[in-house]
Write a structure and sequence with these properties.
Length: 150
């Protein structure tokens, strides 16, 4: 699996990105690292009906020096036809995790596409103990059925 460095993120933050690892660096104080591991759910998919179901496990780690609370999420889910689904909501899976420095939070969720390949990207809105808000960007990662991409 090769590395991809999208110009938009590479130029802005020097972010390391592969198909199953997403890293978002803020500042030393607010340094949130996001790891995404997607996989295809064949048992819930129906390719003949253009329904492809994917699960993704997200690990959010606070590598900064200050605590942070995840307030909300914003996802852009795009299939290979260019159809975009926008998802916004409070927290993740009904929770708003509070992460002290060094702590992590992990959850699994899902997405459904009309095509066998797509992408996800987005951001988490975070808050410090002082009420300062900042965004933890989630660079684009790929959703793909096995053996579709090389």
């Amino acid at each position: 699996m090769g590395l991809r460095f999208p110009a938009s993120y590479d130029e802005i933050a020097g972010i390391f990105l592969s198909s199953d690892f997403v890293n978002c660096v803020m500042t030393e104080k607010y340094k949130i690292v996001v790891e995404a591991k997607p996989h295809y759910i064949a048992a819930q998919s129906a390719p003949q009906e253009h329904r492809y179901v994917f699960a993704y496990t997200i690990t959010i780690t606070n590598q900064g020096t200050a605590p942070a609370k995840l307030l909300s999420r914003h996802w852009l889910i795009t299939d290979s036809n260019g159809k975009v689904q926008e998802v916004r909501g409070d927290g993740v899976i009904g929770e708003q995790p509070y992460l002290k420095p060094g702590e992590m939070f992990q959850y699994t969720s899902g997405a459904m596409l009309d095509t066998p390949v797509g992408t996800m990207q987005g951001e988490y809105t975070m808050s410090s103990d002082e009420g300062e808000h900042f965004n933890a960007l989630i660079p684009k990662f790929t959703l793909s059925i096995p053996r579709t991409l090389h």
